[in-house]
Design brief:
By secondary structure, this protein is mainly alpha-helical. It has 2 helices and no strands. The chain has one domain.
């Protein structure tokens, strides 16, 4: 019961904060800008991660294909 009341109070306070006729528009725009920035950063990070994984895989492939094995040294 108390959790519901506190949740409702929190939602009401948040709504008053964002829908304030004087400063609400500025606050909403700031939150929107921050969300856009975070989305762009996350997207660039994913691209960099994928590129790094691809480069590591290509490096592993080059190592495995360039290994020279001297078959005369292997024990039967």
């Amino acid at each position: 019961m108390i959790v519901r009341v506190l949740g409702a109070l929190g939602i009401g306070a948040l709504a008053m904060y964002f829908f304030d006729p004087i400063s609400g528009k500025r606050r909403r725009e700031r939150v929107r800008d921050q969300m856009d920035h975070a989305r762009r950063d996350r997207g660039q990070g994913l691209v960099a991660d994928a590129r790094g994984m691809m480069e590591r895989r290509m490096g592993q492939r080059r190592q495995t294909t360039s290994v020279d094995i001297d078959l005369s040294q292997l024990q039967p």
